[in-house]
Each structure stands twice: as C-alpha cells, then as structure tokens.
Specification:
- Strand 5 and strand 6 (about 90-100) form a beta hairpin.
- With about 160 residues, this protein is α+β, with helices and mostly antiparallel strands.
- Helices cover about 35% and strands about 35% of the residues.
- The chain has one domain (about 1-160): GAF domain (Beta-Lactamase, 2-Layer Sandwich), CATH 3.30.450.40.
- The strands form 2 sheets. It has a 6-stranded antiparallel β-sheet, with helices on both faces.
- The chain has helices spanning about 30-35, 45-55, 65-75, 105-135, and strands at about 10-15, 20-25, 40, 55-60, 80-85, 90-100, 140-145, 150-160.
- The protein starts with 7 loop residues before the first strand and ends with a strand.
Length: about 160
C-alpha cells in the first residue's frame, strides 16, 4: 500500500457458486465501509464493474457508481483503482486500492498493480489446484520435486 500511497486495500475472491465477490483481505476502512463491500455482485460498485468488464479501472469519487458513492465518500476515499485477478481466462477475484487524494492513480500505477495482481492470481490458482487435487485424491500426499530438467513436477503418493 505504501508503494501506491493508498489508504485502503482489499482483495475480493469470486465465488462461482454464488456468483458474488467476497471480501477476504483488507487494510483500512470503517466497519460500515467494510460491511458495504463484504459481498458484491458482478457489475455492483467498482469491484463488481471491474470483475464484469475484466479490465482495470481507476475512478475518482465523482465518477463512482451512484449506488456505492456515498459509502465510499463517507470513508474519505477520493480515488480507487481496481484490477481483476484472472487465470486461464477465468475470474478469480479483484484487487483494489484506494487513496484519499483524487486523481491519485496513473496508468503507470495501474500497470504496476497489474503486475502484482498477476503474481497474486498465480498464487491463488496454485492454491485452488492444490485444493482440487486433495479433494479428488484424499488418500494421497501431494509433493513437489524438481526434475533433472529443472522443471517442477507434482507427485501424488499414498499416505502411510
């Protein structure tokens, strides 16, 4: 957050079953603000818009969607940037940062946030794959090894 001079940050994860974005990680924000963004539908607020459009957006409070503008403004936010997290074309969630300053996030900031989001997306995808393997093969232990070619390899071994 210090890198962007952001006062708030959040990570929403997309729940495919409910088709909603669920707030999982945050820094900053009043309880009222956090409650208002805890679950968002696709297209709802900036987070939902970014998820639905599949592209990064940075908006000043005056350009914010009407339905959520008052709650965001009440928390002292002047500008918000959000980037979708994707893996293999699939929506994983949205990362957002907010500042008290208007016009705070430049295209360079969005590019940097996009690079960070790419790394977070990869980590989330790995967790989801690991969880899927454990659910499909509950009697196996998943281990990672490096082959002689230097490429990581996943090995399933029966638990003792």
């Amino acid at each position: 957050m210090d890198l962007f001079t952001a006062h708030h940050a959040c990570v929403h994860i997309y729940n495919q079953d409910t088709e909603e974005l669920e707030l999982r990680v945050w820094k900053g924000g009043s309880p009222e603000f956090l409650n208002s963004i805890s679950q968002m539908k696709l297209g709802e607020g900036l987070v939902g818009m970014v998820a639905e459009l599949g592209e990064a957006l940075a908006l000043n409070i005056d350009d914010f969607p009407r339905g959520t503008r008052s709650v965001v403004a009440a928390d002292g936010i002047g500008c918000v940037a959000a980037i979708p997290m994707k893996s293999r074309g699939r929506l994983l969630g949205v990362i957002g940062v907010a500042s008290e300053e208007t016009n705070r996030f430049s295209q360079a900031d969005l590019n940097l946030l996009g690079a960070i989001t790419g790394q977070v997306s990869m980590a989330i995808e790995n967790v989801l794959l690991f969880k899927d393997v454990q659910e499909r093969r509950p009697g196996c232990l998943v281990t990672r090894h490096c082959s002689s070619a230097g490429c990581p390899r996943t090995i399933l071994t029966p638990r003792a």
